[in-house]
Amino acid sequence: MASSSALQFTVRRNPAVLVPPAAPTPRELKRLSDIDDQEGLRFQLPLIHFFRRHDGQDDDPALVIRGAIAAALVHYYPFAGRLRELEGRKLAVDCTGEGVLFVEADSDVRLDQFDAALGPPFPCLDELLFDVPGSSGILDSPLLLFQVTRLACGGFVMAVRIQHTMADGAGIVQLLGAIAELARGAPEPTVWPVWARQLLRAPPLDDDVLLPPRFAHREYDEVMDMNGAIVPFDFMVHRSFFIGRREISAIRSHLPPALRRGATNFEPVYAGPAKGGVGAIPGVASFFIAVRNDMGEEGIAVPVCMPGPTMDKFVEEMGKLTHPTLADTFQTLRSAI
Question: Pfam families from the entry (predicted)?
């Protein structure tokens, strides 16, 4: 039984199963980069996605997604392996092809009953992303855990847990994008993965080649234990920012005149699809939820998590972007003339 404020619902889960790649994959040992070795990345990262029911779509989402995961693992086969620790705590993925964990579930709740609870921190995550016993370690554990929960309204929830050493935000988006394409019937992903982590590994030191350290890599220093976590979650603040038509228009007004007319609604906020640059909300591209606010306006809710003082400054800067002053509005109109 899970509860979200006054909301209570039941989730019935099938036993977890391993989903291997749909075809044979290479058996090899792939070392991670020196950046991936740092202690601050050795944790499991949860993600949760909510989907409405689409008319005319009666396929079982759990069955479709499970098949798409197996197909995607043929191309992303390191994710079907297990992490090992080599000399000097060096991380490497053993491409065993064992597979990733998959949980199929059903719930008696409807999507519209969650209401504002769709924004983080999500109080029912443990029910919609079950911590399979023995799966939460970093070494010798599945690198991905999926749970697909069918809802009473015909929608579903797909929750994912991934080891952060294996992928950053952009990598996770690329992997999930490939799974989505294959679930929609594509024969293969549009973007193929590339493993080039050797480019971020320092050359070995031996008698013939001595490379003196040129930088102090503070990211490898010992870190203070914050209640068993690297990130001090007790000091973190979660907020969701609503961005609708008025906010988009306000953000668009900050763009140069040459870009203002041609920019899509997506680009003023996120600075374009994965092409670099800084949008109004840097670092959170692709992580948003389609919602309606209290006045019924359609838009997106962008979840953000950061330390309290940083959040206060972020709120202040967001206010400047989305609620321009009269002087800003006058300058915008003057530039358009």
Answer: Transferase
